Amino acid sequence: MLRYIFPLILFIFSFSFAKIKVATTYPYIADITQKIAKDKANVISLANGNLDPHFITPKPSLIVKLRDADLLIINGASLEIGWLPPLIRQANNPKINPNTNGFLDLSNFVELIQKPENVSRAGGDVHPEGNPHFYLNPNNIPILADAITQRLCEIDSGNCSFYKQNLNDFKKQFSEKKKVWDEKMKSLKGSKVYEYHRLYDYFLTNYQIIVAGTLEPLPGIPPTSKHLQNLIENSKDVKFILQDVYHSQDAAKFVSSKTGIPVIILPHDVGAIPEAKDIFSLFDIIVERLTK
Ligand SMILES: [Zn+2]
């Protein structure tokens, strides 16, 4: 008899302490989720932070990661449209299907900017629903953390008070950090910048910095010499050229060589550069590189 009861007890014991499995598309989502769920969840990111977030290679190893997930959290606003849908289909995991509790789209909780007049990817525009890089506005982070906590509570109600306590701690810490960022960024209010891709518009708009142009003629379309020439001719009062870690720096260096405007390389996600270890240091480094 005992030899049946012991394995049974062990089984129940392990089940009650089983961690929920959360798959996220990008490292910034994984980091916020891990800070709220702590040891109650195994959290993974499908994409690495140093890659172009629009074009992640849909490797078979990513299907495996989706297969046993209890919850999938995505950025949304079409940022994953080029790589995630076939992975979800092939994972064939009913728990994370869109329109279920196991699927959370963070873009539903924020206001998108730069929504195109007619929704289409014609011309290669990779922002068909508007600008999807909303998490780089620090004001959106607590909103996203709220949405993640709410969903963790729904799928794992037994740990809800634990998640809510961690959310409070996270928001307190984030708001302390944000005071420092806001103070430092005041010096750049009203400045003009160029950027390679429309990655930092939410961040820049929040601090009243003007995007005077992008090296890409359209989001996702590589720079042309005619377009760069136009930027060079209209570069009066432009303070910086902002460059991400994953596009070629040739165009930025070319404009810089013709105008003398310095190029600043910024991380766009946790893990884009080694110093951007988490959501706090991601903003620390962006602010530091812009204001030093
Ligand atoms: Zn983009």
UniProtKB/TrEMBL annotation:
Pfam families: ZnuA. SUPFAM superfamilies: Helical backbone' metal receptor. InterPro entries: AdhesinB, Bact_metal-bind_prot9, Lipoprotein_PsaA-like, ZnuA-like. The keyword Signal applies. Gene3D superfamilies: Nitrogenase molybdenum iron protein domain (3.40.50.1980). GO terms for biological process: cell adhesion; metal ion transport. Belongs to the bacterial solute-binding protein 9 family. This is Zinc/manganese transport system substrate-binding protein. Keywords: Signal, Transport. GO terms for molecular function: metal ion binding.
